[in-house]
Design a protein that fits this description.
CATH architecture of one domain in chain A: 3-Layer(aba) Sandwich
Largest sheet of chain B: 2 strands, antiparallel
Radius of gyration of chain A: 18 Å
CATH class of chain B: Mainly Alpha
Oligomer: heterodimer
CATH topology of one domain in chain A: Rossmann fold
Helix content of chain A: 25-40%
Largest sheet of chain A: 6 strands, mixed
CATH class of one domain in chain A: Alpha Beta
Shape of chain A: globular
Number of strands of chain B: 4
Number of helices of chain B: 12
Helix content of chain B: over 70%
Order of helices and strands of chain A: EEEHEEHEHHHHEHEHEEHH
Number of domains of chain B: 1
Strand content of chain B: under 5%
CATH topology of chain B: ABC transporter involved in vitamin B12 uptake, BtuC
Radius of gyration of chain B: 19 Å
Strand order of the largest sheet of chain B: 1-4
Number of helices of chain A: 10
Order of helices and strands of chain B: HHHHEEEHHHHEHHHH
Strand content of chain A: 15-25%
Strand order of the largest sheet of chain A: 6-7-8-3-9-10
Largest interface: A-B, 26 and 21 residues
Chain lengths: 253, 311
């Protein structure tokens, strides 16, 4: 097992955002977390990256307990994230943003940085064209490509993607998902958070359904696609429509 | 009016000299603000203790008369090192003692601001109790001579040193921030701290680095101040500190070039204002200009990048 969260509780002040989440990600998988707004998907990713402290529970990565490891050290271990809202550094160029992705790589690991630039430019030719443009002036789609490319510059073992489809036109969304599939095929394990459940489920191997800080379903992605209660809760309406009525009580964490 | 015309070039020279000192101090405000969104009000005292550092270095090496040639260069470098060391160390201690414990406990920015004001008084009073409240004179280490004239303005050696040093340091600092790993970490943190952590940036190290850099720049300013004005006092940091903060806001706080531009501009405006309205109007003119600039450009002259960064 590559990454494991065991009974993770996270609080924002007195509000409990995660109420005991347990998740596993195996090598080579694409795992997706779906659920409505406020279900705790983003908090889960932030907790894995170490920018939200856990109240209790544990995070294990490659056999090491990293629960109390500071966020910046987790990048060196092989966890990198393209965060919600993309987190592009607006006053840095595309190249500088990508270089920031390789910030944690030092010494001998730097040797392969130029090759990784090429790899990112191959995945996203658009970024190559925009090399010296400021991050803040890119379009939404370009920023998303940059966010993913930047996360790849860390050479992650697990790539965490938070809502890569957010705010993008349908055509761009399928393009981004195609690239995620390609990244996976090149051997990177992926944990994907999405509101766009149909796209996410057709891409992923396994899925967890989150609801108000709890895992309410965990199953094969394809079986969830066909599941009536999941369809009703998350796949029926438009993206982002509330899924709070989702029953999905069967199954379990 | 003809006062200003007659005084134009001398005012320009004086304005640029004073503005250079403002600019160097302003860099410290702007660096720390950029990363922590905190106005480090104790920064004026970081500057003040630097002036004492260079003064005590002169006492320690027993210099009390003007030097020339290599001896002068050596004396100036020792003054500089002492001021930078004292200011740099003070800045780091300030971060450790007055700010970090609050940050660790998740205290708001207002708490940090109050802590800054407290630290500022503390440092002033410690110096006052130890060295008195009177002006402390520097020995003259260098004969002040006019090197050349610009119009009717005499460019004296000490003033030229101040100006050149500020420009050179600005250049060095820019190179550091844009060209080194730690510098990139500082920029990333200033633009988006949480994402910077996701890139592997150690925020604590970045914060210390900004305090060190700001402290070193304040140290340089302190040494130049000593050279130019030849005195200091427990409260010597107050006015330059306020002016430097103003300069940082004027240029666009969070922006390094803005600090330089704001500093030089403020120095010039003050200097011109003083010769036009009389020197008692100096501060009125300076702050009137600040208010007017902020009315039209609320983010300061070069502050656009920051407002975008925060959005």
């Amino acid at each position: 097992m590559l990454l494991e969260l065991k009974d993770v509780h996270v609080h924002y002040g007195k509000v409990e955002a995660l109420k005991g989440i347990s998740i596993t990600v195996d090598e080579g998988e694409i795992v997706t977390l779906i659920g409505a707004n406020g279900a705790g998907k983003t908090t889960t990713l932030k907790t894995i990256s170490g920018v939200r402290p856990v109240t209790s529970g544990s995070v294990t990565f490659r056999g090491d307990n990293i629960t109390s490891l500071p966020g910046h050290r987790r990048v060196e271990r092989g966890l990198s994230q393209a965060p919600e809202g993309r987190g592009i550094f607006p006053g840095m160029t595309v190249v500088e943003n990508l270089e920031m992705g390789a910030y944690a790589r030092r010494g001998s690991q730097r040797k392969e940085v130029p090759a990784d630039f090429e790899r990112v430019y191959q995945l996203f030719p658009r970024l190559a064209e925009r090399r010296s443009q400021m991050g803040g002036t890119l379009s939404g789609g370009e920023q998303q490509m940059l966010a993913i490319g930047r996360a790849l510059m860390a050479r992650p073992q697990v790539l965490l993607l938070d809502e890569p489809s957010m705010g993008l036109a349908p055509k761009l969304v399928s393009q981004i998902f195609q690239i995620i599939r390609e990244i996976s095929a090149q051997g990177t394990t992926i944990l994907l958070v999405e509101q766009n459940a149909v796209q996410a489920l057709s891409l992923a191997h396994r899925a967890y359904v989150l609801e108000s800080g709890l895992v309410v379903r965990s199953a094969d992605a394809h079986s969830l696609l066909d599941d009536e209660s999941v369809r009703a809760a998350y796949l029926g309406g438009a993206v982002g429509s509330g899924g709070s009525g989702g029953s999905g009580g069967s199954g379990g964490s | 009016m003809h006062n200003l015309i007659r005084e134009f070039w001398p005012s320009t020279v004086d304005g640029l000299t004073l503005g250079s000192i403002y600019a160097l101090i302003a860099l410290g405000y702007t660096l720390v603000y950029g990363v922590l969104r905190l106005i480090n009000f104790a920064h004026s005292e970081v500057f003040m203790v630097g002036t004492l550092g260079s003064l005590f270095m002169l006492h320690a090496i027993g210099v009390n008369s003007p030097q020339t040639g290599f001896a002068l260069v050596g004396v100036l470098l020792l003054m500089l090192l002492a001021a930078m060391a004292v200011s740099g160390i003070t800045a780091v201690l300030l971060e450790r003692i007055a700010y970090r414990p609050l940050r660790r406990r998740g205290a708001g920015r207002l708490a940090a601001l109050i802590s800054a004001i407290g630290a500022s008084f503390f440092l002033q009073e410690v110096v006052a109790l130890r060295y008195g409240r009177d002006l402390i004179a520097f020995p003259r280490v260098m004969k002040k001579v006019t090197l050349f004239k610009i119009g009717a303005g005499d460019v004296r050696n000490d003033k030229l040193i101040v100006f050149v040093a500020a420009i050179v340091l600005m250049f060095v600092l820019e190179r550091f921030v844009n060209g080194t790993r730690l510098g990139r970490g500082i920029r990333a943190t200033a633009q988006d701290a949480e994402t910077a952590v996701l890139m592997g940036v150690n925020i604590d190290r970045v914060v210390v680095a900004t305090f060190v850099l700001g402290g070193l720049m304040a140290g340089v300013a302190a040494m130049l101040y000593g050279l130019r004005f030849e005195n200091t006092q427990y409260i010597a940091g107050f006015v330059p500190g306020i002016k430097a903060f103003t300069a940082a806001v004027l240029g666009g706080i969070g922006n390094l070039r803005g600090a330089l531009l704001g500093g030089l501009l403020l120095g010039l405006v003050e200097s011109y204002g003083a010769s036009f309205f009389g020197s008692q109007w100096l501060d009125v003119v300076a702050f009137a200009v600040l208010v007017i600039v902020l009315m039209f450009r609320p983010t300061g002259l070069l502050g656009e990048a920051l407002s975008r960064a925060r959005a």
